[in-house]
Amino acid sequence: LRIELAHSLLRESLVRSARESGREAAHHAAVARALMPRVASGEPGAAGQVASHLVLAGDTRGALTPLRSAAREHVERSEYALAERVLDRHAALLDQLGAPPDDPERIEAMVARADILRRRGSTEPAAELAQSALLAAERQGKTGAAAAALYVLGHAEVERGDVDRGRERTTVVALHGGA
């Protein structure tokens, strides 16, 4: 079922009705669920909408993965400033949850920020952040995040002139089916 709310007054009326009846959180949770197929199909902007509705539904932890997906969408469109703002929101939610520095979501966000730095041409800071993310991911046993960090690190090394080392890292990732 695809829900279209073409008219902003209708949308506002539904939200107000849900709020006044004490069902606002349930309303936002239902909207987030209804939008999930759009996220799965790769519809631009859907992940950010799901994240917003999950936050309004009180599911802060559940909003983290869609927020990272929204940031990735912005990166893929070279909208780095928007991606960084989304990652800032992600970090604020983690702080609100009291998540520790080695929380897997923080590690994933470190990799995303390292990739943004690399794409912007800041290869040295990108390599440093990717290396930190790699070490944190290895400590936590997060092989997917470790592979992604290694991939970003390898590309940053190639771009700063250490071609052999960078290619070695990206080849290791490719051979193991990561990133």
Q: Total helix count?
A: 9
Count all strands and give the number: 0
Low-confidence stretches: none
**Mean pLDDT over the full residue set:** 88
The span between the termini is: 33 Å
Instruction: Tell me what portion of residues adopts beta-strand conformation.
Output: under 5%
- Which percent bin holds the helix content? over 70%
The main pleated sheet reads as: none
**Radius of gyration, Cα only, in angstroms?**
19 Å
User: From N to C, what is the helix and strand string?
Assistant: HHHHHHHHH
Shape category: elongated
Structural class: mainly alpha
Structure notes:
The protein is an all-alpha fold and about 180 residues long. It has 9 helices and no strands. The model has no long low-confidence stretch (mean pLDDT about 90).
